[in-house]
Amino acid sequence: MTFAPALPMLDRYRSETTEGPTDQGPDLKGLDDAFPFHPTAVGSRRMAAAVARLVVEPEG
Question: Would you give per-residue pLDDT tens digits along the chain (60 residues)?
């Protein structure tokens, strides 16, 4: 059995190009946060979505 790697596309910080009504914030917590480099709620969802695309139901 082989496994394909999940590669979530995470944005580390907000930028002026992403701010606006569709901006959901950064995917990873910053250096000034209690747990730097840990995923935010949005980042956790993006990582789960990357894995969910690769999960297939076994045959049989």
Answer: 577 788 777 765 554 455 555 567 778 888 888 888 888 888 888 888 888 888 877 776
Three-state SS annotation for 1-60: CCCCCCCCCCCCCCCCCCCCCCCCCCCECCCCCCCCCCECHHHHHHHHHHHHCCCCCCCC
Indicate yes or no: pTM above 0.85: no
Instruction: Report the phi/psi class of residue 18: left, alpha or beta, with left for phi > 0 and alpha for psi in -120 to 50.
Output: alpha
